[in-house]
Amino acid sequence: xxxxxxxxxxxxxxxxxxxAAALSxxxxxLTPPITGFTCCNLRPSYDWVSSHNVQxxxxxxxxxxxxxxxxKRDYYLYGTLGTDYVTLSDDTARSKEDTLRWARRVVVPxxxxxxxxxxxxxxxxxxxxxxxxxxxxxxxxxxxxxxxxPADTKDLQSLxxxxxxPVPREDDAPVDIQFDAEGRVGALVGKPAAVQAIAFKR
Length: 202
Prior knowledge:
There is one protein chain. By secondary structure, this protein is of the alpha+beta class. The protein has 2 domains: about 10-110, no CATH class; about 120-200, Beta-lactamase Inhibitory Protein, Chain:B, domain 1 (2-Layer Sandwich), CATH 3.30.1450. Helices cover about 25% and strands about 25% of the residues. It is built from 6 helices and 9 strands; from the N terminus they run αβββββαβαααβββα. It has helices at about 10-20, 95-105, 115, 120-130, 140-145, 190-200; strands at about 30-40, 50, 65-70, 75-80, 85-90, 105-110, 160-165, 175-180, 185-190. β3 and β4 form a beta hairpin. α4 packs parallel to α5 (about 140-145).
């Protein structure tokens, strides 16, 4: 059953506030730091980038220089994306290794804009606007929307990736991106207003 009493975004904000209040003591330095570029378009909320990844708010674009050099409590990474100071948090992590594994998915060693430049123009446009269109590959969807929350999509080779999208005057609604046997987007399934929010229009 989909959440009805409280939106996923509200719960994510609450968890971030609780986490921020719980953090105490000094951060430990990462040696070496995690450096590279943002893998994809990221959606910060109050200077946090979380694995919840609700499709709302400002976009930090794929290809921003990234550097994370400190960590607290094994679950919170601190550093910069471009010129913005940001905290990374994988809300499903159960260990330091889980946190670092997720962070290294989000921060990649090569600038993804080089790959983006080789794609057809309509796919480039979709990625730049954080939208999805039929025929996109998993890599292209990930660059456009970032990765779906591990809480909803445990296997990235799954035929369905679930994202959460704000709907005016309602709770956040799920949109399932369905891939065909060749790993290309075949359909976007969900409330029409939620689908419309992430569907690219040529």
